[in-house]
Design brief:
This protein is mostly helical. The protein contains three helices and three strands, in the order αβββαα. α1 packs antiparallel against α2. The longest helix has 49 residues. It is flat and about 85 Å long.
Length: 159
C-alpha cells in the first residue's frame, strides 16, 4: 500500500512539474541511444517537448490529479483506521488468552507428583510411568528408485 501511495504522489508531482515546465519555457532535449540529455552527443536526435494540450485539457488534467491526490489521502486514512482496529483486536485477543491462562485450574496438592528420597532423580521416570506417551518411530529415508548418479571412470591417458 505504501508503494501505491508513493506512486500516486510521484505521478502528481511529475504531472505538476511537467505542466509547469511546458508553461515556462521549452528546453531542447536530445536522445543519445537509450539516454536523454540537455547536451547533444554524436548521434543526438532532438525530442519534441512542446505541450500540445489546450488550456482546457491542462485544467482537466490538473483537476484529475487533484482528485487522485484527495482519493489517495482518503485511502490512507481508511488503511490506518483498519490497521489500528486490527491491532486493537489482536491486543484484546492476547489479553483474553492471558486471562484465560490465569483462570485455568491449578493442580491441587493431592495431584502433585511426589519427590523421591533420591533428590528427584526418579521423578521423570515416575511421571513417564503415569503418563505413557508413545512416540512415533523414525525410519531412515528410502533411496529414490528413478534417479541414479554414476560417476564416469577417469579417462585413460596414453603412455
Amino acid at each position: 500500500m505504501k508503494v501505491l501511495h508513493f506512486r500516486l504522489w510521484a505521478c502528481a508531482i511529475f504531472v505538476t512539474g511537467a505542466s509547469a515546465m511546458g508553461a515556462t519555457q521549452a528546453q531542447t532535449i536530445y536522445r543519445c541511444g537509450t539516454s536523454y540529455s540537455d547536451t547533444p552527443c554524436a548521434q543526438a536526435v532532438t525530442v519534441p517537448t512542446a505541450d500540445p494540450r489546450t488550456p482546457a485539457q491542462k485544467a482537466q488534467t490538473d483537476e484529475a490529479t487533484s482528485r487522485s491526490a484527495n482519493l489517495a489521502g482518503q485511502l490512507e486514512k481508511a488503511r490506518r483506521a483498519d490497521e489500528a482496529a486490527a491491532q486493537q483486536r489482536t491486543q484484546a485477543q492476547t489479553l483474553a488468552a492471558a486471562q484465560a491462562a490465569k483462570a485455568a485450574p491449578k493442580p491441587q496438592a493431592d495431584e502433585a507428583p511426589e519427590k523421591s528420597k533420591s533428590g528427584g532423580k526418579h521423578k521423570k521416570a515416575a511421571g513417564a510411568a503415569a503418563e505413557k506417551v508413545s512416540k512415533p518411530k523414525l525410519s531412515k529415508p528410502k533411496k529414490p528408485d528413478g534417479f541414479t548418479v554414476k560417476v564416469p571412470a577417469p579417462a585413460k591417458t596414453p603412455p
